[in-house]
Amino acid sequence: MAVPGTAAEDEPGEVPRVAGVPVNLVVAGVLSGLSALGYALAQVKD
Q1: What does each C-alpha distance from 18 to 8, 9, 26, 38 come to in angstroms?
Q2: Residue 30 vs residues 33, 36, 37, 46: alpha-carbon distances, Å
Q3: What is the pLDDT of residues 1-46, one digit of tens each?
Q4: Looking at residue 42, what is its pLDDT?
Q5: Residues 3, 22: contact at Cβ < 8 Å?
Q6: What is the pLDDT of residue 39?
Q7: Residue 15, Cα to own-chain centre: how many angstroms?
Q8: Are 21 and 2 in contact (CB under 8 A)?
Q9: Which single residue of 28, 41, 44, 45 has CA 20 to 30 Å from 18?
């Protein structure tokens, strides 16, 4: 598996995967990245 520890969460074929990673983890990563980007942009002073 691409992400260790996901076997307990889902059976193969139950959760769609993107490049071998469960889609719920992809969404969590994207949201975390966007949050960090928003925070960084808010800290930039003009």
Answers
A1: 18, 16, 8, 25
A2: 5, 10, 10, 27
A3: 566 665 655 566 677 888 888 888 999 999 999 999 999 999 997 5
A4: 93
A5: yes
A6: 95
A7: 14
A8: yes
A9: 41
